[in-house]
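Running co-folding for NAP.
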Amino acid sequence: MRLQGKVAIVTGARKGIGSAVSMALAREGADLVLVSRNIKRKDQVVLEIEKLGCNVIVSQVDVGERARVFSMVREAVAQFGRVDVLFNNAGLSNPVMLWKMTGEQWDEIIRVNLKGTFNCLQAVALQMLEQKRGSIINVTSSEAILGTIGQVNYAAAKGGVHALTRSAARELAPYGIRVNNIAPMADTDMTQKIAHDPKYKDKYLQRIPMGRFAQPAEIGPAVVFLAADESSYITGQTLCIDGGMVSL
Ligand SMILES: NC(=O)c1ccc[n+]([C@@H]2O[C@H](COP(=O)([O-])OP(=O)(O)OC[C@H]3O[C@@H](n4cnc5c(N)ncnc54)[C@H](OP(=O)(O)O)[C@@H]3O)[C@@H](O)[C@H]2O)c1
C-alpha cells in the first residue's frame, strides 16, 4: 500500500470527486480527515472508509471560514500527530451569465473556491513546514485554462488556484513540500446539467475528445500518484484528467 502510515486531509469529501478520492486514498492505507460543510459520521463515504480499517476524523467546516480551517488542522494534528497529504478539493459553482451576475454571486464563488483553497493550503503548509515534508493537491479546472460560458466567477477563481499552486510550489519546494493541481472533468452533482440535460450535453461532449465525462472513481488514481512518494520530483504541475479537453 502506497500511503500506509500517512495522514491525508480531504476537503469537499462528502460527495463527488472528494468522496471517490477519499476512498482511493483509504485503499492505499491513509488515515483520513474528511472535511465538508455537511459531512456526518453516518455518511456512506465515512462508513466505507471505516470498513477498510482506516482511522477517520469527520469535520464540518466551510473552507471559506479561516478560523474554522485552522482549528480543523489543529484537531487533525492533535489526533494523528502529522499531516502528509492535503487534497484541497472543496468547491462550488453557480452558473450565471456575466451581464446578470451580482457582486454577491461573484464574491461567494471566489470566497469558497479561491480563498477556501488558500486557507486550507496555508494552514496545512504551516504544519508541513515543521515536518519538512508533504504533498498538496489543489483542484483547478479546464474552464480556467480554456475559458467557458456562464461562469466567469468560477473560471477566475480556478485560474487563481492555478497561479496559487505554481507560486506555492516555488515557495515550498526547498522545504520538501510539493504542490500540484489536478484539472478534472467528471460526472458529479456539479456537472449534472452539462452531463445530462439534452440542452447542454451534446454541445459539451463535443469539447471532450474522449466523448464522455469521467466517473469520479477515475480521478482517484491520479491523486494517489501525486500524494505518494512515486511523484517525489513533481511539483508546480497541472495534471488534466479531462478526456483530452486541454492539451498543455
Ligand atoms: N466535476 C467536474 O467535472 C469538475 C471539473 C473541474 C473542477 N472541479 C472541481 O472539483 C472539485 C469537486 O467538485 P465535484 O464535481 O466533486 O462537486 P460536488 O459533487 O458538488 O462536490 C462538492 C463538494 O464540496 C463540498 N463543499 C462545497 N462548498 C464547500 C465549502 N464552502 N466548504 C467545504 N466544503 C464544501 C460539498 O459538500 P458540502 O455540501 O457538505 O459542503 C461536496 O462534498 C471542486 O473544486 C470543483 O470545482 C470539478
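Result summary
The mean pLDDT is 97.
The chain has one domain: 7-241.
Job closed.
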